[in-house]
Amino acid sequence: MADYLTDEEQAERLKRWWDNNGTSLIVGLLLAIGGVVGWRYYQTYEGDRADAASTAFSAYLEARAAAQPTGDHLAALDNDHTGSAYHVFSLLYRAADQAEEDDWEEALAFLERAVELADGAELRDLARFRAAKVLYQLDRLDDCEAELAQIRSIGLESQVAELSGDIRSARGDSEGARQAYQTAVEAAQRNSDGPAAAVASMELKLASVVDTKE
To answer: Which contacts qualify for 77-80: CB closer than 8 Å, 24 or more apart?
Structure first.
């Protein structure tokens, strides 16, 4: 039918269509353009933030290695880059420093904060495992076990099993400890990247439990 419409009729139909749809078409185009521009701006912004966080973290590590004050660098990570991977890494380092001083409660506070803020599952599991080790040092065995139960990363399988064996050994559960250490040894042996010393330590624990049973 459109082929048979006069020029005036076609013009009138086009006008009516534009009146009904033109505004929404323009809005849609503006939103699409704005979305592309906004996404590119967001990517640039996030990239700049990541660079700044990396710089602050590197400066912190350099100051820490040189035994220089780290307060300003940590303040930048805490205040300007909260929740970034670099911020979480700094919490792990701070926890390690507190553990070196046998300040287990302060170390645990840093690790709990790292668990709360970590975005990726593997980084969160690493923080959980270190928190579990601190809980073990504090003789909070139930809390330690509960923390371990939440870890899913395959890369931590042998360490989790070993610490589970330590818990069972501390409770006097020789059979449970033996099974956990056996699991730890097998998991460590499957991981060819694992240090030989770690496997030897697990095997020694396993042997000591067996000797105790006998």
So the answer is: 77/53, 80/52, 80/53, 80/56
Number of Cβ within 10 Å of residue 212's Cβ equals 11
Model pLDDT for residues 47-77, shown as the tens digit of each residue: 556 788 889 999 999 999 999 999 999 999 9
- In Å, how far are 36, 44, 76, 97 from 151, measured between CA atoms? 39, 34, 30, 23
Domains 57-152 and 154-214 agree in fold = no
Domain spanning 154-214, CATH architecture: Up-down Bundle (1.20)
Closest residue by Cα to residue 163 from 145, 139, 176, 190: 145
**Residues, the chain:** 214
User: What are the residue ranges spanned by the domains of the chain?
Assistant: 57-152, 154-214
CATH node for 57-152:
1.25.40.10
pLDDT digits (tens, 9 = 90+) for 113-171: 999 999 889 999 999 999 999 999 999 999 999 999 999 998 899 999 999 999 999 99
Query: What is the pTM assigned to this prediction?
Result: 0.73
Of the candidates 192, 136, 193, the residue with the CA atom closest to the CA atom of residue 162 = 136
